[in-house]
Structure formats: C-alpha cells, structure tokens
Design goal:
- The chain is an alpha/beta fold.
- It has two domains: 2-59 and 101-133 and 287-359, 3-Layer(bba) Sandwich (FAD/NAD(P)-binding domain), CATH 3.50.50; 139-284 and 380-450, FAD/NAD(P)-binding domain.
- It has helices spanning 2-12, 38-47, 69-73, 86-89, 139-144, 151-170, 174-181, 190-210, 236-248, 341-359, 395-408, 412-428, 442-450, and strands at residues 30-34, 53-58, 62-64, 83-85, 96-100, 103-107, 112-115, 118-121, 124-127, 131-133, 182-186, 220-224, 252-254, 259-262, 266-269, 274-276, 279-282, 286-288, 299-300, 304-307, 319-321, 326-328, 374-377, 383-387, 390-394.
- The strands form eight sheets. A five-stranded parallel sheet has the order 5-2-1-9-21, with helices on one face. The chain has a four-stranded parallel sheet with strand order 13-12-11-17. Strands 6-7-8 form a three-stranded antiparallel sheet, with no helix packed on it.
- It is globular, with a radius of gyration of 23 Å.
- The chain starts with a helix and ends with a helix.
- 43% of the residues are buried.
- The structure holds flavin-adenine dinucleotide.
- Flavin-adenine dinucleotide is lined by residues 34-40, 57-60, 66-67, 69, 102-103, 128-130, 148-149, 190-191, 289, 291, 323-325, 339-342, 344.
C-alpha cells in the first residue's frame, strides 16, 4: 500500500516551477543530499521508501570505494571493481532520485542550491561532500605530484608508474633511469603505508619477470613521514609492526622528515635531504570541500564544517553535515570524529533516523560514535589490527582486513570481481592489469584536479 502510494506520487506529479532541474513535485518533504560517498549512501539507505523525497546530487555518477584506490594504482584491481553506479544503487527505491550535477552554492535564506545544471529547492539539506588532497599550500609540490583521492588519481598513478618503468628501459642515462624508477610516497597514514607495501611487492614479484632488463634493486621505494611513527592514529604496537613489515619489504622509511620542495625530478626535505624521483605520491593530508554559501564562522580546522551534537550545521535550522566534512566538536571530540568510513556510515545512518524524527516532531538524541577499531594492511598476507583492547598483527589481521573490505564494497558483482582477483593474486602474485590504456600527461592530471 505504502509502495503504491509512493509510486503514484513519483509518476503523477510534475516539476515544481521554482526548480530548474526537472524533479517531481511530490508534496513530501524534500531531502537534498550533496555527495554519494559512504555518508551520503548510508543516509539514502535509511530514507529509502519512507515518506520523504530524496534527491542525491554528485559530480560523478558513481560511488567510490576509496580504501582500495591503492590496488587500482598498483594494477591489482580494475577501476570498475571499486566504483559503483548510483543509479544501480538506488534501483527500486521509489522515493530516491539521482542527479548528476556539481553543487556550486547553497542559499540558506531561500532553501535553494545552485548546481552547474540549475537551481533546486530543498526542505532539508545534507552536505556529505568529503575531502580533497591537502598539499598545505605547496603549489610546486602539488603541480608535480599525484594525490590519491579519486579513482582518476589511481589511474594516473598507474599510468605514470608504468610509463616511467617503460621509459627507464629506453633511456641510456643512468641518472634518469634512477629518477624514473624511484618512488616517493609522502604520508605514513594507512593510505601511504598500504601504497608503499603494494609497490614493494610489485617491485619484488613483478619487476623481475616483466622487466628483466634491470635488477629489482633498481626500483627504490621511499615512505616519508613528518611524525616520529607510522599509523599515528593506531597503537604503538601497530606502528612498530608496520615499520618492521615495510622494512622487511625493503621500503626506505624516513620518519621525522617533511617534504619541502619537489620539482618533478628531485624531492627535498626539511632537513635538506634530496631524493632523485620522477614519481611522487602524496597521501599526507586532506581538507574538506564544500560549495560556497556556508558562513565562514562555521568552518574549522581542516576546512571542515562545525556541527552541533545532532550533526546540524550551527546557525541553520535545516542544514546538516555528515562524514569527513563534518566536525562535531565536543569535550570528547575536540577535533571532531576521525575521517574514516565507519564514522561517515554511522553519521549517515543516524541522520536518516533523525530527519524522520524531526519531520514527525519527535525528539532527537545526540550522535554517539562507536569506534569499531582500525585495520591497515602491509602488502599481501600481513596487516595490523587494533580492535579495542585486542591488538594483533600478521596473517590473521590480514585475513580480517580482507573480509571487512570485501564485505564493505558495494554490489555483488564488485565483491565477486575483487574476491576473484585477490584469490588469483594470493597464489600467483600476478597482477594482470598492467596496461597503459591512455597516455599519462602530468599537466592534464593537474587540470583534472582543479575541476
Ligand atoms: C586512499 C584512501 C584510503 C582510505 N582508507 C580507508 C580505510 O582503510 N578505512 C577507512 O575507514 N577509511 C579510509 N579512508 C577514508 C574514507 O574513504 C573516508 O573517510 C570516507 O570516504 C568519507 O566518506 P564521505 O561520505 O564523507 O566522503 P566521500 O566518500 O569522499 O564522498 C564525497 C562525495 O561527494 C561528492 N561531492 C563532493 N563535492 C561535491 C559537490 N560540490 N557537488 C556534488 N558532489 C560532490 C564526491 O564526488 C563524492 O562522491 C581512505 C581514504 C583514502 C583517500
């Protein structure tokens, strides 16, 4: 009965005259969600088939599973295994619509947003726009290196790496060959550690087979971290085990070093060290991204939007922020919640229930984050796990990491593809996706990043 009611609403109603993007005028409260990442999609799941109209805007037509970007970058997975079309995700959700558009500005006084395709009104607005790479104002470093915050970044890294390895086989200049085969990863958080481990295994198992022209010792992998330990949000045990695992894979880990300059050929650190490298992957920080129109007084460290304990942006009565972009500052969380998938998912679910309660004039409890623990993998078969008081490392941590990630990927086909690829590479160390499909041009990657 409820389904029929929603179906009729969607078919019978016509566009609201004030909207420039065609959307049915259903008379139901309209919830506009900007961003279909972990937070936005968790919210959609809570609001599906309820008596609200949900419009999800994203600048891509797909959800991205960011924790496995490094596997696409190192040719272990194809991009379509870890991205998932929104329209497939919302198949059969009668009250949810997707519109491919970039939201450029919000107008809180008139409850309207401006997108690059036109304006739309909202009753409730949710910003779930996530983050972009933060180069901390180092323009020169930014213009020569690659971040890892988008599936296109992962493909750029893959193409840069394969092209440079090919060029290394062509050049007769020893110095140039060194620069082409040296890889510098900046940032010793999970993304940097996982990338370094995967590259080290590429060097150990693939390089000797594919590039018999030169010894595997030619490919050097440096991991540079400004702090005095890796994985600084995890336990000391996890940090020290990770260091040991990476050193076992011959990754040159440099702690207490910060990159101060990079000209595309040579990396310079604060202490004056230099490394010859034409490959620099930057995973050292992120900053929030959101449309214009948010009052600057609500923006805090990391370019995040400050919310109250109900994830409402302070100063607005119907605008919320969830996921990486949100900073719920409290006594317990002076820096907001960690910018991880679990926090984003829990906030999305919480807000779904909250919005339904608000509509029904019911009271809303404050958001409470439940930390389910942290995992990070170092190459194949080794990982570190902090699950509350239980802290362990090695094969079982890796098995747990694999199961958790496989279960979290959207779509049955994607789970199957990732699972199949992992089983094959577990037994063979084979990575079959080492194809240079398009020419990587560093300048065009910078243009894409600016968009
Ligand atoms: C390389 C890497 C590895 C990671 N590994 C882990 C891990 O192992 N475990 C973990 O828990 N977390 C990990 N994270 C962090 C995790 O991915 C994020 O915490 C999570 O994605 C945050 O979800 P979100 O929904 O807030 O934002 P996102 O997932 O970033 O989604 C934001 C969405 O908003 C869209 N968008 C942005 N601006 C606009 C606009 N103006 N108009 C329209 N659409 C817009 C984007 O296209 C995107 O789809 C990793 C992140 C990276 C980059």
């Amino acid at each position: 009965m409820k389904e029929k009611h929603l179906n009729n609403i969607m078919l019978e109603s016509s566009c609201k005259i004030t909207d420039e993007i065609c959307l049915p005028d259903t008379k139901l409260p309209r919830v506009v969600i900007i961003g279909g990442g972990f937070a936005g999609l968790a919210l959609v799941e809570k609001l599906k088939n309820k008596n609200v109209q949900v419009i999800i805007f994203d600048k891509n037509n797909f959800h991205q599973f960011q924790p496995l970007f490094y596997q696409v970058a190192t040719s272990a997975l194809e991009p379509d295994s870890i991205v998932f079309p929104f329209r497939k995700q919302i198949n059969g959700y009668k009250n949810v619509l997707f519109r491919l558009a970039e939201v450029q500005e919000i107008h809180p006084s008139s409850n309207v947003i401006t997108t690059n395709k036109g304006k739309v009104h909202y009753d409730y607005l949710v910003m779930a726009t996530g983050t972009i790479t933060n180069f901390f104002g180092m323009d020169k470093v930014e213009s020569h290196s690659l971040g890892m915050k988008d599936i296109r970044d992962s493909l750029n890294i893959r193409h840069m790496m394969l092209q440079n390895l090919e060029q290394a086989a062509i050049t007769c200049d020893d110095k140039e060959r060194d620069a082409l085969t040296n890889f510098v990863i900046v940032g010793g958080g999970p993304a940097g550690v996982e990338m370094a481990g995967a590259l080290a295994e590429f060097c150990k198992y693939i390089l000797p087979k594919d590039y018999p022209e030169y010894p595997s010792s030619i490919m050097n992998i440096y991991l540079i971290e400004a702090g005095d330990e890796l994985l600084n949000t995890m336990s000391d045990k996890a940090s020290s085990k990770t260091l040991k695992y990476l050193e076992g894979l011959k990754v040159n880990v440099q702690l207490n070093e910060a990159v101060s300059n990079y000209d595309g050929n040579e990396v310079t650190t604060n202490s004056g060290k230099t490394i010859l490298a034409k490959n620099l992957i930057w995973t050292a920080g992120v900053k929030g991204q959101f449309p214009k129109g948010v009052d600057k007084k609500h923006v805090v460290k990391g370019n995040r939007i400050k919310t109250d304990s109900n994830l409402k942006v302070e100063g607005y009565k119907n605008i919320f922020a969830i996921g990486d972009i949100a900073a719920l500052i409290s006594k317990d969380t002076p820096n907001g919640h960690p910018q991880v998938a679990q926090a984003a998912i829990q906030q999305g679910k919480y807000l779904g229930d909250s919005i339904l309660s608000i509509i029904e004039n019911k009271s809303v409890k404050p958001f409470k984050y439940k930390d389910k623990g942290s995992l990070a993998t170092v190459g194949k078969r080794k990982a570190v796990a902090d699950l509350g008081k239980l802290k362990f490392a090695g094969y079982f941590a890796w098995l747990l990491w694999s199961i958790v990630h496989l279960m979290s990927i959207s779509g049955f086909r994607n789970k199957l593809m990732v699972g199949f690829n992992w089983v094959v590479s577990y037994f063979s160390y084979e990575k079959s996706n080492r194809l240079i499909i398009r020419n990587f041009n560093p300048k065009s990657s910078i243009k894409n990043r600016e968009k």
